[in-house]
Specification:
The chain is mainly beta. Helix content is about 15%, strand content about 40%. It has three helices and ten strands; from the N terminus they run E-E-E-H-E-E-E-E-E-H-E-E-H. Strands 2, 4, 5, 6, 7, 8, 9 and 10 form an eight-stranded mixed β-sheet that branches. A two-stranded antiparallel sheet has the order 1-3. A hairpin with a 6-residue loop joins strand 9 (about 135-145) and strand 10 (about 150-155). About 25% of the residues are buried. The mean pLDDT is about 90.
Length: about 170
């Protein structure tokens, strides 16, 4: 009944889970507690990660060209923290599980490219390969407390066929 209320968004090229609330009040509760939500993505990257698992922590700033850049803790920059783990490799690609501690625009794409492993299908941050015909980034799982019952919810979206095929 009524219109849905957007709780969060994804970059246009990213597939996966979106969360909507059925009322503005519930949306506000979810957004106020968004830092307690575990946000897990799957990314397919070019190459192999320098370490099978790790953490990237730095500061990001956005230019007038709408590109995100790594910087020192400068005026206007925002702290960004990404945890990653290699899940599988196939040929020249690696499937990476990414858990966000912070959620900045293009954070995953910039951090993985900074590790020398850009997300497939992402010419903005350094890849020429596009084996899936799309960006290789998928919002896979959200784990959160229900806003009224407090019950822990684990919501999951399977990897889309086009991305799954790259890893087969």
């Amino acid at each position: 009944k009524g219109r849905p209320f957007v709780v969060h968004r994804l970059d246009r090229e990213t597939s996966g889970l979106l969360l909507f609330a059925r009322s503005a009040a519930v949306r506000d509760i979810l957004q106020a507690n968004w830092d307690t939500v575990t946000k897990t993505y799957l990314a397919i990257v070019e190459g192999k990660l320098p370490q099978p698992a790790g953490k990237v922590e730095n500061f990001l700033i956005y230019g007038k060209d709408m590109r995100c850049r790594l910087v020192r803790n400068d005026k206007g920059s925002r702290r960004a923290v990404t945890h990653y783990r290699a899940v599988a490799t196939h040929g020249k690609s690696t499937l990476v599980e990414v858990v966000l501690e912070t959620g900045r625009k293009h954070q995953i794409r910039v951090h993985l490219a900074g590790l020398g492993c850009p997300v497939i299908g992402d010419p903005v941050y350094g890849t020429a390969s596009d084996p899936a015909g799309r960006l290789g980034l998928h919002a896979h799982r959200l784990a959160l407390d229900h806003p009224t019952t407090g019950e822990r919810l684990e919501l999951e979206s399977p990897l889309p066929t086009a991305l799954r095929r790259v890893m087969e």
